[in-house]
Amino acid sequence: MQTTTPVKKVHKRFGSPSDRIFDTLNVLFLVCLAIVTLYPFVNTLMVSLNDASDSIRGGIYLWPRQFSWGNYHYVFKEATIIHATMISILRTVIGTVVTVFASAMVAYTISRPEFVLRKFVTVMFVLTMYLNGGLIPNYLLIRDLDMIGSFWVYIVPGIIGVFNMIVIRSFIEGLPEGIIESARMDGAGDFRTFMQIVLPLALPALATVALFTGVYQWNSWFDVFLYNSQKPDLSTLQYELMRMLANSNSNSSMTAGSAFANSGNGNANYVTPTSIRATMTIVASVPMIIVYPFLQKYFVKGMTLGGVKG
């Protein structure tokens, strides 16, 4: 009996010269895009790791010319930095959890067709995205609520994010109605349905909103300047870094050269506004860069599915 050797079929896509050319150009384009995207961050990191007085000469690209921890020593030598970092972490965690949960509750409420005022409430929320009382009315409101000089001024004013609520609402409206109806037939109330059915299914949208809110809370410093500038124990990392950069700019303007010395333990450590700015960028970015990979898959899914309905 004659046996035949099976012939492996070559996919047409790999056999076509035009397709191979397209794939090659596509890979080259994506590689160039990755380089253009990553280079500014890598260059900033190298400047922060280079000796500040040497950085004035320029020419630092992908590797520090004179490696030094002096910039980071200057940033973290302040006793307030560690405490401010803890306040930033605390406001980021609490603010993100509270905002996501409150926005999800409102989103679930206005997503229910039996809620007769849902269109009116939605319009009222959306109007707040375009109409704002301004800085002075907001400040007077915070003052009348007796939140100036308190930690909760970081949490309460942004407890409901309209954009976040719309993202979660759109995602919830895309869920099968039969799942919610079956939970009600089993005797679950609205809150139990929300906690045990809707929240687990809406995890991609919640992760997306959590990333938005976390980045905002971590990077925010203007509210500290407005409401808690006289409370050093409530200062945040971003506000302290902003003050440090302002001091470095003023100190450098009072010296003859572009770098100024910061004495510590008998040694002169030269820093410049450029080196401090690069160091601050890395210090402020690293926590978000560490968190993002854990939320990336939920972030992409939440943005695609949550944007199906308006």
Automatic annotation (TrEMBL):
Coiled coil: none annotated. Its main location: membrane. It comes from the Bacteria. The keyword Cell membrane applies. One of its GO terms (cellular component) is plasma membrane. It is found in: Cell membrane. It is a multi-pass membrane protein. InterPro entries: MetI-like, MetI-like_sf. The keyword Acyltransferase does not apply. Residues 85-295 form the ABC transmembrane type-1 domain. Belongs to the binding-protein-dependent transport system permease family. This is Carbohydrate ABC transporter permease. It comes from Paenibacillus protaetiae.
